[in-house]
Design brief:
This protein is of the alpha/beta class. The protein contains four helices and seven strands; from the N terminus they run E-E-H-H-E-E-E-H-E-H-E. Keywords: Cell membrane, Membrane, Protein transport, Transmembrane, Transmembrane helix, Transport.
């Protein structure tokens, strides 16, 4: 029984043709994919790593949702108390990164009020994302 191969390139030269067999190429590619899947570490879960950093006070997340409610590390907080809460976190870790997650339709006035309070609290590392 013979295996039919697909010709991807063929050139006629004086009555003969050159064929390239794809079967070995596909075999090698699939073998490499299987080796990479097996050798991939099982504990490389981004969310568990991120959760561990948050519980050890190595990262601070601020969420401003579409209803203009503010959450610091999943705890709802009043806009006037942001400064106090962040100063406590910065006191524990002076170089703590602060991630601000902002809803797409948020009012810019509120965003800049919160951003100025974060700067006034002494934050040095700030990142922004749209939710």
């Amino acid at each position: 029984m013979s295996i039919k191969t697909k010709t991807i390139w063929s050139k006629k030269t004086k009555g003969s043709s050159i064929n390239i067999n794809l079967t070995p190429i596909i075999d090698v590619a699939l073998t490499l994919v299987i080796i990479l899947i097996i050798s991939m570490p099982k504990s490389s879960n981004f969310y568990s790593i991120h959760r561990n950093l948050r519980t050890k006070n190595l990262i601070c997340n601020i969420l401003i949702n579409k209803d203009q409610e503010i959450y610091i590390d999943n705890e709802k907080i009043d806009i006037n108390k942001i400064n106090i809460s962040l100063k406590e976190k910065i006191k524990k870790n002076n170089n703590i990164p602060i991630n601000i997650h902002v809803a797409k339709n948020i009012n810019y006035d509120i965003f800049f009020k919160i951003y100025n309070k974060i700067l006034a609290a002494g934050a040095k590392r700030i990142a922004f994302t749209k939710v």
